[in-house]
Amino acid sequence: MPPCSPWCWIKPTHYDDNGYPIQWVKAAIPSNTLACLNGLAEDASRRRVLGPDVAIRVRTYDETNRRVRPDRIVRMVRRAGGRALIGLVGVQSNQFPRAVDLARPFLCAGLPVCIGGFHVSGCIAMLPEMPEEMREVMARAFPFLPARPSIAGSIGSSATPGTARCGRFTTT
User: Fold this and answer.
1) Considering the entire predicted model, what is its pTM?
2) 3-state DSSP helix/strand/coil % of the chain, to nearest 5
3) N or C terminus of the chain: which is more exposed, having fewer CB within 10 Å?
4) 4-154, what's its fold?
């Protein structure tokens, strides 16, 4: 059996006024972003788009109704061979700071992380220049999905992800 490359799609929540992540016991509406990306990844796995020797296992996490434990995800990735793609997906503007905070432990573990969603796509498409908080984050080895769509190609190879600074990022 080929080695397994976990693809972890995480839909982050946002912070309340006191700085705590907002979570609900039950979510009324499932994440369409997670459903679409899960379907695309399952299709890529079935068609072996990364080659015959790479198996893809998709994991989805909706932080609005499920606690996301980066330490556990990192351990799962290491048990599966150490190669993965961590995607913080469907990120809206009020979720961007939380997405950055969630990404830090994965970067510190040497895993590739990308952030995508309306905030990223909208800023790239509609603003004359990228906002300061996005430039700061990008300087710390975060690719954004619209800016570098080929990152998935490095999952099945021996490419080493960029080095990240693991200190606290400041976002506004």
Assistant:
1) 0.77
2) 35, 15, 50
3) N
4) Rossmann fold (3.40.50)
